[in-house]
Design brief:
Layout (H helix, E strand, L loop, with lengths): L2 E6 L12 H12 L3 E6 L7 H22 L5 E5 L1 H15 L2 E6 L2 H4 L6 H13 L2 E4 L2 H10 L7 E3 L14 H8 L6 E6 L8 H14 L3 E6 L5 H13 L5 E4 L4 H10 L2 E4 L8 H8 L4 E4 L4 H5 L5 E3 L4 H13 L1 H17 L2 H12 L2
Parallel strand pairs: 1-2, 1-3, 3-4, 4-5, 5-6, 7-8, 7-10, 8-9, 10-11, 11-12
Helix pairs in contact: 3-5, 7-10, 8-13, 11-14
Length: 361
């Protein structure tokens, strides 16, 4: 039995069940295949100054304890996010000569590496020193080659995959009745963190315009308020502009998210930047049409008619995309067929099979 240490700055907890759930899904799938997995992870998404300091001090302390007590027992280290997870994993390689694989998810290259010279250098150093890199999207792969001078043969394109035992089609009427959602309403769903970079300002503005045309339309936002100041700004906007028909729910487990996706008429992803866009695949697996911005890995998921891509940071483009999908039944049917095909391509079981092959190279 191979023993693997997974290092991550995102991992679910009882209080925050959706935080890094895609990483836990992989861990559980690997355990079913006989791997022994230890996890050293940050399990709290809150981002106020005191919490950031506290949770990372605790995380580094736990990681160092594992290094001292069990470090040499691992066959492989898999770090999720280049910095700081991959950066910290380098210590195991230097001392115990273990193989290090790091998965780049998007924010680690698009945001963290851009915070300053130290972070950029640490990210680049990590990318060059680890044994292999997994990029969850084509845009990330090209960025590593172009901006960080990483040899292309060192990178494997492999996303996190969708769990099709959870995300699958259900009866829409039953889903709405369970969730107490109006059976006749046009329902738009957003699932993700409540962040400014997720395009929620544009989404609320586009929804306000649609509400004036379609009185029965509703918008449901599901996610963590990781930026408290922005969350307050968003709520103020909704209140001051008297935007009716919006409900906000905190994060929930995957079974509940799948139910909401089946209840919705369309899932929207209005992000300014996106590493991969797993939530789009999850919606496609539920046979729910997807409207998303033409950014990052999302543009590849939505291509060939699997979803409808709109311009980022543009209320008008977003409103047009949502209105078109809601009203065009033929487009909906075509998107469901193409989305189902895309979801099959990225089935989690197939992805984990590929990952295990990578472990043994």
């Amino acid at each position: 039995m191979e023993k693997i240490l997974v290092i991550s700055t995102m991992y679910p907890s009882r209080r925050h069940p959706s935080f890094g759930i895609f990483i836990r899904n992989h861990v559980q799938a690997l355990e079913k295949r006989g791997y022994q997995i230890d996890v050293a992870a940050v399990r709290d998404p809150r981002m106020n100054h005191w919490m950031i300091v506290k949770k990372y001090v605790v995380w580094f302390a736990k990681l160092f304890f594992i290094f001292l007590t069990k470090g040499k027992t691992y066959d492989l280290i898999h770090a999720h996010y280049v910095f700081p997870s991959g950066w910290a994993a380098r210590l195991f390689k230097k001392v115990f000569r273990q193989r290090i694989i790091v998965t780049a998810h998007g924010g680690d290259l698009n945001k963290m590496a851009r915070k300053g010279a130290f972070f950029f250098k640490a990210t680049k150093k990590t990318l060059h020193e680890v044994d292999h890199i997994v990029a969850v999207g084509e845009k990330l792969r090209s960025d590593m080659i172009t901006n960080f001078n990483v040899p292309k043969e060192k990178i494997t394109l492999l996303n996190m995959g969708v769990d099709r035992t959870i995300f699958k089609p259900m009866d829409k009427r039953s889903a709405r009745q369970t969730l107490n959602v109006d059976l006749t309403a046009k329902v738009i769903l957003y699932v993700g963190n409540l962040l400014e970079a997720k395009g929620l300002i544009e989404l609320v503005a586009a929804f306000k315009d649609l509400k004036n045309i379609y009185p029965d339309i509703a918008l449901y936002l599901i996610g963590e308020a990781k930026e408290p100041h922005f969350a307050q700004r968003l709520m103020t906007m909704i209140h001051q502009e008297n935007v009716r028909g919006i409900q906000i729910h905190s994060s929930m487990n995957q079974q509940a998210i799948a139910l909401w996706m089946n209840a919705a008429d369309v899932l929207v992803i209005p992000s300014h930047t996106e590493g991969f866009g797993l939530v789009a695949l999850e919606a496609m697996a539920c046979h729910t049409p997807v409207v998303g911005t033409h950014v990052g890995g999302l543009r590849y998921l939505l291509q060939d008619g699997a979803g409808l891509a709109v311009k980022p940071k543009q209320k008008t483009s977003l409103r047009w995309g949502l209105e078109r999908v809601i009203n065009d039944k033929h487009l909906q049917k075509d998107m469901l067929q193409r989305g189902e095909k895309r979801a099959r391509e990225f089935d989690q079981e197939r992805i984990v099979d590929q990952l295990t092959k990578l472990y043994h190279e």
